[in-house]
Write a structure and sequence with these properties.
- The chain has about 140 residues and is an alpha+beta fold.
- It has one domain: CBS-domain (Roll).
- Helix content is about 30%, strand content about 20%.
- The strands form two sheets. Strands 1-2-3 form a three-stranded mixed sheet. Strands 4-5 form a two-stranded antiparallel ribbon.
- It is globular.
- The chain starts with 17 loop residues before the first strand and ends with a helix.
- It comes from Psychroserpens ponticola.
- Keywords: CBS domain.
- This is CBS domain-containing protein.
- InterPro entries: CBS_dom (IPR000644), CBS_dom_sf (IPR046342), Diverse_CBS-Domain (IPR051257).
């Protein structure tokens, strides 16, 4: 295992993101369509928040029973905006941070995803799943 491998080696570069003006129904569809758990909220290429599938489940029991359901049928999403539900105090990292440093940061703060930002631009996202897959590849 290389000790100085940058997170850019394992991060997801094809970013699925939402804008703060999108609705929560759109976000849930993206979570399900792409089988993801975290979506950066952006204004242009600048990250302004993070939305997790757990955030949606906190405000609604929508589709909690059947995650394979592709239809979104919930009225509660009309009561909230992405801006109200997203985490606003987002910790970001640069693409040059080592995988070890990312693992320590995720473990210490109990995060499950970190946006990767270079020169103010969102360039990727790294999740605990990315770290686990990296470790599996080492064996």
């Amino acid at each position: 295992m290389k000790k100085r491998t940058p997170v850019s080696a394992i991060m997801t570069k094809n970013i699925i993101a939402v804008n703060r003006t999108d609705d929560l129904e759109t976000a849930e569809k993206l979570f399900k369509q792409h089988h993801i758990r975290h979506i950066p909220v952006v204004s242009g290429d600048v990250i302004i928040g993070m939305l997790s599938y757990t955030d949606l489940l906190r405000i609604s029991f929508a589709d909690a029973v059947n995650e394979n359901e592709t239809e979104v049928d919930t009225v509660v999403y009309n009561m909230f905006t992405i801006n109200q539900v997203m985490s606003k105090n987002v910790v970001t990292i640069s693409s040059e941070v080592t995988i070890k440093e990312v693992a320590e940061l995720l473990a210490k703060n109990e995060f499950h995803a970190l946006p990767v930002v270079d020169e103010g631009q969102l360039v990727g996202i790294v999740t605990t799943t990315d770290l686990i897959n990296y470790l599996i590849d080492q064996f």
